[in-house]
Write a structure and sequence with these properties.
10% strand, alpha+beta, 11 helices, two-stranded antiparallel ribbon
Length: 346
């Protein structure tokens, strides 16, 4: 094998997008990028290659769909027997309510948000196009920027055959030259991942609406879907994972000051019943667990129980176990003034 073939490459401006289904990456024009003499290539870890669904997503979704179909069958049976009440009419109207809600939501975005186009926010438009191609989609979803009023957020949804992504302005600012365009690319890839994975379809939202309204089961499905979307975001921009966690945890101004490994280690350090409850009720994976999942791409993200191992990345999403570090806030005995001691949190 020619040694030059083992040298990593990066895409030249204007070249086709790599990692797109049906495109042979070996024929793309590339420019050599030197590597260190001690660098060792590793195959991508299980969750560092093409996006995979979280293993909990489909089983929980199947339960949700079966529960919804069972509920509708029960409602129709009661109505057929003459037991009509306002409580039974609401489920029957749910298909119309979901349709109207999606339509109004999409119209509100179209009427008030700024659309991302080739001439307006062109860098963001490029990210949307590249992610759509990389995920094997047949279309480019609409994308918008709207005033976030200080919130860091983004979401994906749809109406009819249309799909769209909305990025709040404060999160979009993370993509400014002074901050982290990598984080913005990860977030947009994450949101388009929701579309590519089918999370925004009308029928999916309708049939999962029953379980999504339940505190524990709904959040369980939501967390699995968020981990799936993170797999898409990671596939688009692996180096955007750390600044994305930094932005969500400490804000757009301090994101670069966050020690990603220390933050992810706290997924193991921080334990207890109430940590478990907070995660159980959360619609998104709690950030320390999410950081741990983005660092360790050899396994799926933790859904119910905290990660158990301290690891460090070794490349391509692979990790190696390391000795348990001291809790991040720990200090040497006797180093605090006035006889102060640590709280003993750990």
């Amino acid at each position: 094998m020619d040694p030059a073939e083992s040298i990593p490459h990066h895409r030249l401006p204007g070249a086709p997008i790599p990692s797109v289904p049906g495109v042979d990456d070996s024929v793309l024009p590339v420019e050599p990028r030197p590597i260190g003499a001690t660098s060792v290539w590793q195959p991508p870890a299980a969750y560092a290659g093409r996006p995979r669904r979280h293993p909990w997503e489909i089983p929980v979704l199947v339960i949700a769909v079966l529960a919804a179909l069972g509920a509708y069958a029960a409602v129709i049976t009661f109505v057929a027997l003459g037991a009509i009440s306002e409580f039974l009419l609401i489920p029957l109207a749910l298909p119309i309510l979901v349709f109207l809600g999606r339509g109004v939501g999409y119209a509100s975005i179209r009427a008030n948000a700024v659309q991302i186009t080739p001439t307006q926010f062109p860098d963001a438009f490029r990210i949307v196009v590249e992610a759509s191609a990389r995920y094997g989609m047949e279309f480019v979803p609409d994308a918008y920027v709207m005033n976030g009023n200080g919130q860091l957020n983004a979401f994906a949804s749809g109406h009819g055959f249309r799909r769209y992504v909305v990025v709040y302005s404060d999160l979009f600012e993370v993509g400014g030259a002074a901050r982290s365009p990598e984080a913005l690319e990860f977030v947009i890839g994450h949101e388009i991942g929701h579309i590519a994975a089918g999370h925004t379809s009308y029928w999916r939202q309708l049939l999962s609406s029953l379980i999504m309204s339940l505190p524990i089961f709904g959040s369980l499905l939501s967390r699995a879907q968020e981990y799936t979307a993170d797999n898409y975001g990671y596939y688009s921009r692996p180096d955007g994972a750390a600044p994305m966690i930094g932005a969500l945890s400490s804000g757009k101004y301090l994101l670069s000051a966050v020690d990603f490994d220390q933050f992810a280690d706290r997924a193991v350090h921080e334990r207890g019943f109430f940590i478990w409850v907070v995660n159980l009720l959360a619609s998104h994976p709690i950030l320390t667990w999410r950081a741990a999942a983005l660092r360790d791409r050899t396994r799926s993200g933790a859904i119910l129980f905290r990660p158990r191992w301290f690891v460090r990345g070794t490349g391509s999403g692979n990790v190696a176990a390391v000795p348990a570090p001291h809790p991040p806030a720990s200090v040497a005995a006797g180093s605090l003034p006035n006889g102060l001691s640590e709280t003993g949190t750990y």
